[in-house]
Design goal:
This protein is an alpha/beta fold. It has ten helices and 15 strands.
Amino acid sequence: MLAIARKAAIRESLQEHKSVRITELAAQLNVTKETIRRDLREMEQNGELIRTHGGAYILDGVQNDIDVGTRQVLKIPEKERIAQKCDSLIQSGDYIYLDGSTTCWSIARLIAHRKLTVLTSSLEIANILCASDTIKLHVVGGEFSPKNKDFIGDGAIKTLERYYVDKAIISCRSVHLRYGITDTSDGRARLHQTALEHARRKYLVVDHSKLNNVSFSHIAPLTAVDGIVMDRDFPSDWVDYLTEHHIQFF
């Protein structure tokens, strides 16, 4: 297969799935992994995609979901900085909700030694915290999503509605000054909405790449949260907006 045809196939797969893996592309296109790596390098140089260890992804369009296998290796230092900031917002004895985002995975690892009650929809976070002697763990059941390693759907929402927490910590796919907090599916958006409604304090955790973007499903306006935690300083227009609307930023 010619390079132009391979790259066209890679583009088509990226548009459909938003992320690709080298091993799967090599098998699909019947070429070596090194051939795919070379194609991805060239496409990255042309600004068509972002390479990761073992694959590539794009952030394009309102349906810009990326599978958890890709997300868990992206922006690890940024997620760790966010987790450090969140650690200082959590007090001993708090009841907290952590969503299924890979950012919350980092938070879970950091707080595993603390005396807390954690409610989560994430199987991965349950695995991280289940061996802790100090964490009292509650897992929200429902329909399991292999793509994200968490529980979603009506069952998860009904379970979550039974509980109230001191602090809800959620992430999202995109956040915009005008359009607010958005994600890639109605089911996940509804779960986030329920978590926010059942929390005394509500925090959004995002890395800087999610600012000024919009995804398919609306979760809430920015004014629905008490604070936003990010890996770096906020742009000046965000600082002005958040200050005006009495939303803390960290």
